[in-house]
Write a structure and sequence with these properties.
Blueprint: H1 8-15, H2 21-44, H3 73-89, H4 97-117, H5 120-134, H6 138-149, H7 154-182
């Protein structure tokens, strides 16, 4: 420690600029492309009106593009893309692995909770509790429909876990290449 209370390594961390705009832009671009891919799944292979936040309009009508993978691709994309968006929003997206790994774990947990909430054992009691506690508003009605009409699937749990792990692996890879460029 120096006389000011921090050592040279800590001082360089304090003045180290946030990850260059190129890294942040790459994360935002990759997350955006992933979300567009997920939207395409709903427009081409699924009934778009069944998605919670998509407007009720006709699908592309071109027939299935993604085939069987369309069942689980959105479950993969959501934690993957939102983990990257969270990392891009951080002051230093790749500076602290525990922080961006934490973002990946957070989005994994959120997606897992929503998938488990669709399980027949939990969906009706959760929908009832939601409407009892928060009333019959549009948001609670939409979430209740999601819980009651959604389909619990172990494949979705595998896909959302793979998406969070893929995001963590990508962020770890980017962090290690950033460390190599700094040395």
């Amino acid at each position: 420690m120096s006389s000011r209370g921090i050592d040279a390594a800590q001082a360089s961390d304090l003045v180290r600029p946030a990850a260059g705009p190129g890294r942040r832009t790459a994360l935002l671009l990759l997350a955006g492309l992933a979300l567009l891919l997920g939207l395409l799944v709903y427009l081409a292979d699924r009934r778009a009106a069944g998605a919670l936040l998509l407007p009720r309009f006709a699908a592309l009508g071109s027939g299935p593009i993604f085939g069987v993978i369309a069942q689980w691709l959105p479950s993969f994309i959501h934690p993957f893309a939102f983990s990257l968006l969270s990392a891009a929003a951080m002051r230093q997206p790749l500076a602290a692995p525990r922080t961006f790994y934490g973002a990946c774990a957070f989005w994994w947990a959120v997606n897992l909770a929503f998938e488990l909430a669709q399980h027949p054992r939990f969906s009706a009691p959760l929908a009832d509790a939601l409407q009892s506690g928060l009333g019959q508003g549009a948001v609670t009605a939409a979430i209740s429909r999601y819980l009651l009409h959604g389909r619990f699937d172990w494949g979705d749990i595998a896909a959302l876990s793979a998406g969070a792990l893929a995001a963590a692996a990508l962020l770890g890879l980017l962090q290690s290449t950033e460390d190599e460029h700094e040395s």
